[in-house]
Amino acid sequence: MNRARGLGFSLREVAAHLDSPQDHTRKSRLLSSMEDKIRELDSLLADLQSRRATLLSLTVELRRTEC
């Protein structure tokens, strides 16, 4: 459970998986959940990269206008 939490899954998500039926679709449900988490991380990374680029640009601009 700690590994799942460390990867960004909520306690609710972990519990839902553990409580899900152990049938032939369990693996596909887990894969789908993991792919959703990857998309969330990709979106977060893109947002962080955008913020970083903005901060770098502002830093360069401020350095040019130093007194």
Automatic annotation (TrEMBL):
A Pfam family reported for this protein in Swiss-Prot or TrEMBL: MerR-DNA-bind
Protein name as annotated: Transcription regulator MerR DNA binding domain-containing protein
Domain Transcription regulator MerR DNA binding positions: 3-58
InterPro entries membership: DNA-bd_dom_put_sf, Tscrpt_reg_MerR_DNA-bd
Organism: Phyllobacterium zundukense
